[in-house]
From TrEMBL:
It is an enzyme of class 2 (transferase). GO terms for molecular function: UDP-N-acetylglucosamine 1-carboxyvinyltransferase activity. Its EC number is 2.5.1.7. It comes from Rhizobium daejeonense. This is UDP-N-acetylglucosamine 1-carboxyvinyltransferase. Residues 8-418 form the Enolpyruvate transferase domain. The lineage of its organism: Bacteria, Pseudomonadati, Pseudomonadota, Alphaproteobacteria, Hyphomicrobiales. InterPro entries: Enolpyruvate_Tfrase_dom (IPR001986), Enolpyruvate_Tfrase_sf (IPR036968), MurA_subfamily (IPR050068), RNA3'P_cycl/enolpyr_Trfase_a/b (IPR013792), UDP_GlcNAc_COvinyl_MurA (IPR005750). Belongs to the EPSP synthase family. MurA subfamily. It holds the Pfam family EPSP_synthase. GO terms for biological process: cell division; cell wall organization; peptidoglycan biosynthetic process; regulation of cell shape; UDP-N-acetylgalactosamine biosynthetic process.
């Protein structure tokens, strides 16, 4: 199993190209199941989760052809992938595949809408809480589907003649359930109104792509989304939006280690709340032509309290990284997690580097220290693992992060991007 070795202490200087967003690419790829034409996606990141979803889609009958696998002059690296699902070969998504990545459960929406039925294993994914699927079940039931759980699978069946548009208010904001409802309702008869919808930029990206395919969706990015069903969707070409979590992660790395980095090919408006928190912590964050410049001062980090919330609040996917930053602050800060109930597994690993963190319910109290010291640590989930990497960059001496397969799920060429900016980071394959 690969490990990542970091020798901390270097400031980061240079340019980091930001990849296409994993959390947008996954639902966009799944949308290819809705049409027999070709959906072409540009700027698809090269990540373990994307590769796994390619296999899952292949199982359902999607032909995939990849091109543009080339490095650009600025070091960016994006792929264009063509997806064609002439006919759905299989409406079952098996346990062996779905259990490895929660987002693959989302195929339930397009399969049900296009084929009238789907049998999908209950999901797996990062171990950051119980992560139920009740909202998906209720939402699809509102569109007329029969949903039955049997032997670890959900059997979903649409009424004769297909799903029927309806008004449904989510009792809780869910990104995945909003994606699935938009995809399913696009091919339903009549109009669907989703209340309390997720407002994340990735939801807007999916709506834009579906509209380019012929769907009639309005209101994405607000909490009420209206979808007028159409009888079929066509192909389209769509560019995956930049990864706001990768952007925020590197911005926090610079704030923590010090240095001056331009995050290229990203958009500050995707992560206003997180950038504001980084500014309050003392780093300079400015918009540049086609990116964001972050100047950090390393040793002068101010304590800032944050609470994770659905978009446009502070993203839960940046919580671990921000806690990493706060371990170096000159004072006490609090980080409160409201989205997932078990997303503090990085706390004990950060403590191994010398961080002083105490947990009380859903809030962590972080007493900053001017010195972190490198240590062996273990990656526990995707975002937690990158918080250990950035903490390692700011720590004295060597940090060895094991179980880095978590990182490979969501961060494209992390070692290379950091090394180009002067960090000492290397992958060790055992
Ligand atoms: C997506 C993101 C993930 C991010 C999360 C919250 C992808 C691939 N993943 O995950 O990186 O951390 O949004 O921004 O885009 N819930 C229920 N019942 C359900 C569904 C969800 O109770 O049926 C709960 C979850 O347990 C969680 C909360 O709703 O407490 C939000 O989860 P959700 O927005 O659905 O997260 P994902 O879409 O899985």
């Amino acid at each position: 199993m690969d490990r990542i070795r970091i020798v901390g202490g270097n400031e980061l200087k240079g340019i980091i190209p930001i990849s296409g967003a994993k959390n947008a690419a996954l639902p966009l790829m799944i949308a290819s199941l809705l049409t027999s034409d070709t959906l072409t996606l540009e700027n698809v990141p090269h990540l373990a989760d994307v590769e796994l979803l390619l296999r899952i889609l292949g199982n359902h009958g999607v032909d995939v052809s990849v091109n543009g696998r080339r490095e650009h002059q600025d070091g960016s690296y994006s792929r264009t992938i063509h997806f064609t699902c002439r006919t759905v070969a299989d409406t079952t998504a098996p346990y062996e595949l779905v259990s490895k990545m929660r987002a693959s459960f989302w195929v339930i929406g397009p399969l049900l809408a296009r084929e009238g039925k789907a049998r999908v294993s209950l999901p797996g994914g990062c171990a950051i809480g119980t992560r139920p699927v009740d909202l998906f079940i209720e939402g699809l039931q509102a569109l007329g589907a029969e949903m039955e759980i049997d032997g670890g699978y959900i059997n979903a069946t649409a009424p004769k003649g297909g799903l029927i548009g309806a008004t449904y208010n989510f009792p809780k904001v869910s990104v995945g359930a909003t994606h699935v409802m938009m995809m399913a309702a696009s091919l339903a008869r009549g109009t669907t109104v989703i209340g309390n919808a997720a407002r994340e930029p990735e939801v807007v990206d999916l709506a834009n792509c579906l509209n380019a395919m012929g769907a009639k969706i309005s209101g994405a990015g607000t909490s009420t989304i209206t979808i007028e069903g159409v009888s079929s969707l066509s192909g389209a070409r769509h560019r995956v939006l930049p990864d706001r979590i990768e952007t925020g992660t590197y911005a926090m790395a610079v704030a923590m280690t010090g240095g001056d980095v331009v995050l290229q090919g990203t958009d500050a408006s995707l992560l206003d709340t997180a950038l504001e928190a980084i500014r309050r912590a003392g780093a300079e964050v400015t918009e540049t032509d086609g990116g964001i410049r972050v100047v950090g001062y390393g040793s002068e980090i101010r304590p800032v309290d944050i609470v994770t919330e659905p978009f446009p609040g502070f993203p839960t996917d940046l919580q671990a990284q921000f806690m990493g930053l706060m371990t170096r602050a000159n004072g006490v800060s609090h980080v409160t997690e409201t989205i997932f109930e078990n997303r503090f597994m990085h706390v004990q690993e950060l403590a191994r580097l010398g961080a002083r963190i105490t947990l009380s319910g859903q809030t962590a109290r972080i007493e900053g220290t001017s010195r972190l010291r490198g240590a062996p640590v273990m990656a526990t989930d995707l975002r937690a693992s990158v918080s250990l990497v950035i903490a390692g960059l700011a720590a004295e001496g060597e940090t060895m992060v094991s179980r880095v397969y978590h990182l490979d799920r969501g961060f494209e060429r992390l070692e290379e991007k950091l090394t180009r900016c002067g960090a000492i980071v290397e992958r060790i394959s055992d």
